[in-house]
């Protein structure tokens, strides 16, 4: 009896141990190891198109190979070539000259103005009257037409940079990003942006000038033509808030009155002609180059559903080396986004070693050129290596704040589709709270790679750590002192166990989406679902 009981106990213990061993575990040490390599000085900030990013891409591909993740790029390999075009300033210093009844004032580039020229290269010497167009938005779904009754043909529009208070923050962020397209469709030849008080608080001018490069970059289609993010506008200018009063001299309203109205919930200042003309002078030259995305596939286990894909993505690039200054000039990007890339690799490992694979396939993409405008993701979304209609959902990992033990997460974009359910259930199972967008003024929804998938009709989310349990202080300190600076490196007090927890959260979400019987659905009457996937079956919210 005794020996039999002992044998049963041993067998049960062995079986339990086997089950425990079969469940994926998530390692703080592995997260640390990946970040330590990707954020090393030897990679010189991983800027797209440089040797440092090429090394980072090769590292990610080698990790995929070691894990048994199948190549999902072009020509049977892991890499997906992204063709890029960069426009940089040349010739005399750009300037904006404003003429009113009080005379002429010149605003210099990187002084109290920031001037962008034609993306395709060439010289601009543009002179035209100014017309104020409020927030510069037009969209029938939300009832906005800031151009109603205005003639802007051949003119330069002046638009508030920001979105109306009270609008859904993600819809507002999208409409803000559409300003150049709407202006061009109405015949405008240039645009001048004036910050609202909220946007000026979120993006202080001196910080913008420090972080904003002179170069503009766009992605190039497979036929060799570059995408024009200005939609044909000849020039674009942002003005330092205290200098913007000059545009409204002798107009029917002062800038102060306009900003007062914009400060009100629901406030949408109406447009009017300005008693001013502007001259914008700027010249650009271009260069073409390329940089790789890294794409891997973990094949699903279900004979039918394996032809559908859940996409996990994050950008492996950063902003490279500062061109001037003394001391440390390497922007290592430890949190932005070596931490997200490390999470991506750790989730891939967990999926690869799990006792059973998800029913659907998992498509894993380490994008390039996110820092230059979501360009690697945009290129992939327009010419993916698997059909876009088989991508049922996308989760993007960008700059997880691993400086504290997070107790909540923010899934930017989840409220628009049934993806929200998967995130809510995962959060509940892990004792984590799912929080709403804590920084609507930052327009984060349109500033990360998942947005490129949204525009293709794919329900998509950018997942970040939240503001609870010290997160608010950690985020504020990082954004003001370390974001896009050399100090975003391994000297930060990174909580590596938070990285392991973040990886586990993502793994659980991907398993839930990969194993579900049905696809995620946009909610009925959702703005983005109706705009980008009008024919898709919708769910009731």
Helix and strand topology:
Layout (H helix, E strand, L loop, with lengths): L1 H21 L5 H11 L12 H17 L2 E2 L7 E11 L5 E6 L2 E6 L4 E4 L5 E11 L5 E2 L4 E2 L10 E6 L7 H9 L1 H7 L4 E6 L1 H6 L2 H7 L4 E4 L15 E5 L15 H8 L9 E27 L10 E7 L18 H20 L7 E7 L7 H8 L8 E7 L10 E5 L6 H11 L3 E3 L14 H5 L5 E6 L5 H11 L14 H20 L11 H6 L9
Parallel strand pairs: 6-9, 9-10, 10-12, 14-15, 14-16, 16-19, 17-18
Antiparallel strand pairs: 1-13, 2-11, 2-13, 3-4, 3-13, 5-12, 6-13, 7-8, 13-15, 17-19
Name some characteristics of this structure.
single chain, 541 residues, alpha/beta, 17-stranded mixed β-sheet, 19 strands, 23% strand, globular
Enumerate the spans where pLDDT stays under 50 for 5 or more consecutive residues: 1-21
Instruction: Note the gap between the termini.
Output: 60 Å
Number of DSSP helical runs: 15
- Backbone CA Rg: 25 Å
Helix/sheet category? alpha/beta
Strand fraction: 15-25%
Shape: globular
Helical content stands at 25-40%
Q: Give a short account of the largest sheet.
A: 17 strands, mixed
The total beta strand count reads 19
Mean pLDDT, all residues: 93
Q: Short summary of the structure?
A:
With 541 residues, the chain is of the alpha/beta class.
What would you say this structure looks like, in words?
- The chain is an alpha/beta fold and 541 residues long.
- It contains 15 helices and 19 strands.
- The strands form two sheets. It has a 17-stranded mixed sheet that branches.
- It is globular, with a radius of gyration of 25 Å.
């Amino acid at each position: 009896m005794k020996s039999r009981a002992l044998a049963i106990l041993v067998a049960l213990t062995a079986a339990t141990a086997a089950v425990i061993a079969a469940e994926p575990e998530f390692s703080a040490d592995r997260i640390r190891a990946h970040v330590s390599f990707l954020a090393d000085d030897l990679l010189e900030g991983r800027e797209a198109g440089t040797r440092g990013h090429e090394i980072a891409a090769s590292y990610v591909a080698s990790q995929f190979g070691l894990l048994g993740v199948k190549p999902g790029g072009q020509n049977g390999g892991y890499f997906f070539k992204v063709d890029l075009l960069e426009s940089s300033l040349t010739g005399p210093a750009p300037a904006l000259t404003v003429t009113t009844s009080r005379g002429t004032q010149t605003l210099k580039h990187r002084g109290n103005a920031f001037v962008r020229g034609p993306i395709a290269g060439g010289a601009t010497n543009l002179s035209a009257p100014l017309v104020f167009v409020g927030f510069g938005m037009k969209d029938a779904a939300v009832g906005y037409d800031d151009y109603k009754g205005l003639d802007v043909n051949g003119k330069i529009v002046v638009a508030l940079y920001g979105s109306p208070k009270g609008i859904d923050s993600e819809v507002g962020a999208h409409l803000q990003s559409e300003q150049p397209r709407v202006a061009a469709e109405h015949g405008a030849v240039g645009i001048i942006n004036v910050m609202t008080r909220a946007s000026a608080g979120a993006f202080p001018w001196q910080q913008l000038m420090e972080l904003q490069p002179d170069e503009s970059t766009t992605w190039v289609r497979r036929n060799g033509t570059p995408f024009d993010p200005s939609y044909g506008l000849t020039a674009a200018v942002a003005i330092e808030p205290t200098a913007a009063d000059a545009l409204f001299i002798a107009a029917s309203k002062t800038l102060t009155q306009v900003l007062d109205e914009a400060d009100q919930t629901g406030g949408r200042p109406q447009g009017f002609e300005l008693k001013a003309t502007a001259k914008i002078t700027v010249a650009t030259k271009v260069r073409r180059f390329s940089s790789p995305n890294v794409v891997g596939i973990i094949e699903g286990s279900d004979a039918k559903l394996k032809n559908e894909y859940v996409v996990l993505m994050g950008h492996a690039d950063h902003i490279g080396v500062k061109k001037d200054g003394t001391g440390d000039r390497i922007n290592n990007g430890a949190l932005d986004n070596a931490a997200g890339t490390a999470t991506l690799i750790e989730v891939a490992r967990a999926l690869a070693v799990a006792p059973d694979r998800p029913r659907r396939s998992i498509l894993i993409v380490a994008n390039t050129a996110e820092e230059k405008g979501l360009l690697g993701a945009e290129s992939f979304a327009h010419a993916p290596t698997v059909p876009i209609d088989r991508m049922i959902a996308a989760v993007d990992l960008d700059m997880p704040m691993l400086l504290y033990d997070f107790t909540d997460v923010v899934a930017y974009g989840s409220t628009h589709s049934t993806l929200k359910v998967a995130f809510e259930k995962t959060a509940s199972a892990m004792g984590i709270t799912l929080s709403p967008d804590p920084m609507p003024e930052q327009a984060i929804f349109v500033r990360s790679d998942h947005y490129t998938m949204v525009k293709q009709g794919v329900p998509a989310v950018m997942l970040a750590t939240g503001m609870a349990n010290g997160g608010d202080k950690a985020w504020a300190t990082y954004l003001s002192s370390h974001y896009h600076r050399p100090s975003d490196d391994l000297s930060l007090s990174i909580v590596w166990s938070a990285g392991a927890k973040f990886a586990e959260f993502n793994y659980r979400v991907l398993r839930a989406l990969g194993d579900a019987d049905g696809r995620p659905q946009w909610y009925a009457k959702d703005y983005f679902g109706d705009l980008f996937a009008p024919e898709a079956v919708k769910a009731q919210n």
